[in-house]
Amino acid sequence: MFHLTHEHEMIRQTARDFAKKEILPIAAEFDESGEFPHATIKKMGELGFMGIEVPEVYGGAGMDTLSYVLALEEISKVDASHSVIMSVNNSLYAYGFLRFGTEEQKKKYLAPVASGKAIGAYSLTEPMSGSDAGTMRSQATRDGDFYVLNGRKSWVTSGPVADYVVVFMLTDTTKKQKGISAFIVEAKTPGFIRGKKEPKLGIRASATSELIFEDCRVPVENRLGEEGDGFKIAMTVLDAGRIGIASQALGIAEAAYQAALSYAREREAFGHKIGDFQGISFKLADMKTRIEASRLLTYDAALLKERSKETGERFSINAAMAKLFASETAMFVTHAAVQIHGGMGYSKELPVERYFRDAKITEIYEGTSEIQRLVISRAELSNQ
Ligand code: CAA
């Protein structure tokens, strides 16, 4: 159904080889320590993985959305921590610049991240505003040629290490969603403070933290889009981000499935390979079927996003369906993979327990499964 070009096969193979050679040997160790994998992330940047869809003139690889999805899937098969860092740089950070950035903003703030020399982050969530993103409290007040940013943001992926952050704040407290604007903040700006780092269940080598803004002065030219456009920018960017998370979930699920399949072929009980028992083999059939369905939804959303570069059409529902189905598949598959492995699935000697812990976040970040259902059903019900 999906025609992969020579270029697609090449990027998939490059990502697969890199993940196997460079990430696989360190994944468990970095998961255990929770340390940020600076060295491998830098190498991924050198390979063009941090700005796959960004035109070469802005430091990226100039490839299409399917290339991005294929590469991210391969990295995710080996380690979801590396893949979320890659996903945030490519979609939550870079896509916003591609859609809404000025020429100067792209040169100054997109190029270093897309070329892997710097790390970007996207900061929407607040302690009291998660799924209901329109209820944020952080404020940006205009003061001459500057905005003065104040507030507390939470759950920022790459927050502890980011060089640049796109942050969303209220510029008009009377307007809710239509009073939100987006700003590019350099981490070295006075008043930009990195807060508490989150100790997490999974994706432990990716760094997540609060960000605190205390009279943080940002020049007017660092506003992304117009005043009041922030909410739509945040949502548009999340549509792209959700395709990235769907690819991540797909990669995690595939890794867990392959591990379970191998184990079912080798492990014996009651005088048989355990794969001979329908209690195991039917699980494998369900795992495989859901993975292939996730792949179709994810690649389809990627193709639609690619087409949107010409047509400008929205791909919100397709991104939401891909993320919803792939993330719930990742949870289903990793849960079954642990079960098939029995005691060994619970042991840190194998990566299966890590896949299980990593899968859970895909049902939560960039919009919970409940939010994806809301996005899909609202759009369906409003269509006459
Ligand atoms: N694209 C463009 N515009 C959009 C849009 C989209 N995908 N979704 C909504 N809009 C527009 C609407 O058209 C509407 O515009 P008009 O008023 O002009 O008609 C406006 O935005 C408001 O839309 P809604 O009325 O639908 O807004 P809402 O308050 O009901 O919220 C929501 C909608 C879907 C629930 C949204 O709040 C949402 O997606 N919540 C989840 C937030 C989320 O995913 N957070 C994750 C943060 S990132 C992260 O996880 C951390 C990380 O670093 C990885």
Find the structural class using helix and strand composition. alpha+beta
- What's the number of helices? 10
Rg, nearest Å = 21 Å
* Helix amount: 40-55%
Query: How big a fraction of the residues is strand?
Result: 15-25%
Side-by-side strand order of the widest sheet: 1-4-5-8
Tell me the major beta sheet.
4 strands, mixed
> Which compounds are bound in this model?
acetoacetyl-coenzyme A
Number of strands: 10
Question: Per the principal axes of the C-alpha atoms, what is the gross shape?
Answer: globular
Task: Give the helix/strand layout.
Layout lengths: L5 H28 L4 H9 L18 H14 L1 H21 L2 H12 L5 E4 L15 E5 L2 E12 L6 E7 L9 E7 L5 E6 L10 E12 L3 E2 L5 H37 L1 E2 L2 E2 L4 H34 L4 H26 L10 H10 L7 H14 L2
Parallel strand pairs: 1-4
Antiparallel strand pairs: 2-3, 3-7, 4-5, 5-8, 6-7, 9-10
Helix pairs in contact: 1-3, 3-4, 3-6, 4-5, 4-6, 6-7, 6-8, 6-9, 7-8, 8-9, 8-10
The structure holds acetoacetyl-coenzyme A.
The site of acetoacetyl-coenzyme A has 26 residues, from strand 3, helix 6 and helix 10.
Please describe what this structure looks like.
The protein has 384 residues and is an alpha+beta fold. The chain is 53% helix and 15% strand. It contains ten helices and ten strands. It has helices at residues 6-33, 38-46, 65-78, 80-100, 103-114, 230-266, 278-311, 316-341, 352-361, 369-382, and strands spanning 120-123, 139-143, 146-157, 164-170, 180-186, 192-197, 208-219, 223-224, 268-269, 272-273. The strands form three sheets. The chain has a four-stranded mixed sheet. A four-stranded antiparallel sheet has the order 2-3-7-6, covered by helices on one side. β2 and β3 (146-157) form a beta hairpin. The model has no long low-confidence stretch (mean pLDDT 98). The structure holds acetoacetyl-coenzyme A.
